[in-house]
Amino acid sequence: MGDKFLFANSEKEDADVCIFGMPFDSTTSFKPGTRFGPNAIRDASYNLEFYSMALERNIGDIKIFDAGNIGFHTKPQDAISEISKRTNDLLKNDKFIVGLGGEHTVSYGIAHAMKEIYKDIAVIHFDAHADLRTEYDSEKFSHACVMNLIGSEIGFENIYQFGIRSGEEEELKFAEKTNFYPLHKYDTTQILEILDDLNISKRTYLTIDIDVLDPAFAPGVGTPEPGGITSNDMFKILNSLKKFDVVGFDVVEVNPMIDVSGITAMAAAKIVREGILNFI
Ligand code: MN
Ligand code: MN
Questions:
Q1: Which ligand is nearest to the CA of 146?
Q2: Average of per-residue pLDDT across 8-13
Q3: Whole-angstrom Cα distance, residue 21 to residue 37?
Q4: What are the residues facing 207 on neighbouring strands?
């Protein structure tokens, strides 16, 4: 266990989906430990069936390659650079990307490469936090700034944010520029309605910060924020996202060091299974 995802049954050349881990957590000053996230999600995958009852599909029918983890970096720019290179190579080889975090900073590396290759992309973001800061602990390349970094590159109007229930006044000024659906105004029922009405013609990247789930469903996160959605809500939402041209997704911020009974890693592993089955 730990070295590859349960469902990974293919070599790189044949695979339609490529999973890779990003064990980076250097800008997480409060409770680091998401560097252990990717392998914890892999371990948790061994508890899952290949068959999804909800989707009536077997993930064993999909060709998946687990490329392992990127190297360990302490400087965010180094992690971002390796992630971008790797993503770039995979996209050129027509792979669907599944990234396992790691703190949220890593998603910038993937989005950056997608923008390079596809020029015009949209990003759908699920999180408890807006992540729109321009700087955090004097660092621009931070988990708290990731959507600001991505928005500055792809255009804030191409970002769709759901589940948000925490942000400071200054960063929320940027939320006026994104498609911003905070959880106190838009709960799961309304999110599903919005997604139903929404048309995004661009290739779309999906980034899921596991703390979008309520701390009861995802206690193993660096910055738990009460009042989140349930795991089951997340699966329903994933299902409603399949109408978009999703070219990859990530699940980030799983911190096994402070998880309880592996609940958070388990939720993340199932999100990976259901996500792949929805989008491929
Ligand atoms: Mn968060
Ligand atoms: Mn986040």
A1: 2
A2: 94
A3: 8
A4: 125, 250
Q: How many CB atoms lie within 10 A of CB 169?
A: 6
State the pLDDT at residue 279: 97
Type of residue at 249: F
Could you confirm whether domain 5-279 is CATH 3.40.800.10?
A: yes
- 61 Cα: distance to centroid of ligand 2 (angstroms): 32
Structure confidence at residue 2 as a pLDDT band (50, 70, 90): low
Rounded CA gap, 21 and 69, in Å? 4
For residue 108, the tally of other CB atoms under 10 A from its CB is 27
Buried b (16+ CB within 10 A) or exposed e, 195-215: beeeebebbbbbbbbbbbbbb
Q: What stretch of H or E contains 249? A: strand 246-252
Ligand 2 mean position to 14 CA, how many Å? 32
- What ligand has the least distance to the C-alpha of 105? 2
Angle, CA of 124, 135 and 91, to the nearest 5°: 40
Instruction: Give 74 Cα–ligand 2 centroid separation in angstroms.
Output: 19
Span from the CA of 30 to the centroid of ligand 1 (angstroms)? 13
Instruction: Give the integer Cα–Cα distance in Å for 251 and 229.
Output: 15
Residue type, 184: H
**Cβ–Cβ contacts within 10 Å for residue 93, how many?**
11
Q: How far is the CA of 13 from the centre of ligand 2 (A)?
A: 32
Residues 6+ apart with CB under 8 A from 136: 27, 142, 143, 144, 145
Q: CA-to-CA distance for 230 and 234, rounded, in angstroms?
A: 7
User: For 41-78, what is each residue's pLDDT tens digit?
Assistant: 999 999 999 999 999 999 999 999 999 999 999 999 99
What is the residue extent of each domain of the chain?
5-279
Write down the pTM of the prediction. 0.98
